[in-house]
Specification:
The chain has about 190 residues and is an alpha+beta fold. It folds into two domains: about 15-85, Methane Monooxygenase Hydroxylase, Chain G, domain 1; about 100-185, Alpha-Beta Plaits, CATH 3.30.70.100. Helix content is about 50%, strand content about 20%. It has helices spanning about 15-40, 45-85, 110-120, 150-160; strands at about 100-105, 125-130, 130-135, 140-145, 165-170, 175-180. α1 (about 15-40) packs antiparallel against α2 (about 45-85). It is flat. The N and C termini lie far apart (about 45 Å).
Length: about 190
């Protein structure tokens, strides 16, 4: 269960990350409720319902990942507050800028690259998402954000943007590697 967020929490990177993750979790929960409502109202084709089911599963997975991360950050913030750690007077607060190199394969052409860049740049907390390289179906982007970025959350955003599966291929080292699944027309 989520830990309560103390009202006296310092406005540091953890507090900001916690706030952003809570906002994202609330949006995911709202999208899940909306998708469930649409699924029960509509009697679409099996393909449409299958796509909707896939998106609901994607959102549910993102919600779980966000909830776990939120719990971890709340625990860390509580521990930091308990130790009374705060920047000393006259010393700058720690940098809250996070940079992440992301390589995405399966990008469907130049328009797909633009959609990819736009989706990542519009993530809450992302300050910049410049494209460093694009060759074939592989794009490399350098994301700069005010909060730590979670690979599963990046994949969930791209799933929503492209309407097809996106998997985290490797998040253990830099760069983070994601793969957009091809649609049948792409094969």
């Amino acid at each position: 269960m989520m830990q309560p967020f103390p009202r006296s929490a310092p406005h540091d990177a953890f507090a900001e990350a916690l706030r952003v993750l809570r906002d994202a979790l609330a949006r995911v929960e709202a999208l899940l409720a909306e998708a469930d409502a649409i699924a029960t109202r509509q009697h679409g084709s099996p393909t449409e319902l299958s796509r909707l089911e896939e998106r609901i599963d994607t959102l549910a997975a993102a919600q779980e990942a966000l909830a776990l991360r939120l719990d971890e950050l709340a625990d860390r913030l509580t521990a930091i507050e308990g130790r009374g750690e705060r920047p000393s007077e006259g010393q700058p607060a720690p940098s809250t800028s996070h940079t992440l190199e992301v390589v995405v394969t399966g990008v469907p052409g130049f328009q797909g690259l633009m959609d990819l860049q736009r989706a990542l740049a519009n993530l809450e907390g992302v300050r910049a998402a410049p494209v460093r390289g694009f060759q074939g179906d592989e794009a490399t982007l350098d994301l700069t954000a005010d909060v730590p970025l979670i690979p599963d959350a990046l994949a969930a955003v791209l799933r929503a943007a492209f309407g097809r599966p996106v998997e985290v291929v490797d998040a253990s080292t830099m760069p983070i590697r994601l793969r957009i699944a091809p649609v049948e027309a792409d094969l």
